[in-house]
Amino acid sequence: MNVLGLETSCDETAAAVVKDGKHVLSNVVASSLQEHAQHGGIIPEIASRRQLEFIIAVAEKALIKAKVKLKDIDAVAVTSQPGLIGSLLVGISFARGLSFAIQKPLVSVNHIEAHAYANFLEAPGAAANKKSGRQKPKLPAIALVVSGGHTNLYHVKAFDQFRLLGQTLDDAAGEAFDKVAKILDLGYPGGPAIDGLAKNGKNTNVRFKSTVLPDTYNFSFSGVKTAVLYHCRDHKLQKEFSPAKTAYSFQDSVVLALTQKSISACRKFNIETLLIGGGVAANSALRAKLNEASSQHNIHAHFPPLSLCTDNAAMIAGLGFHLINERRITCLI
Ligand code: KG4
Ligand code: ZN
Question: Ligand 1 mean position to 190 CA, how many Å?
Answer without folding.
Answer: 8
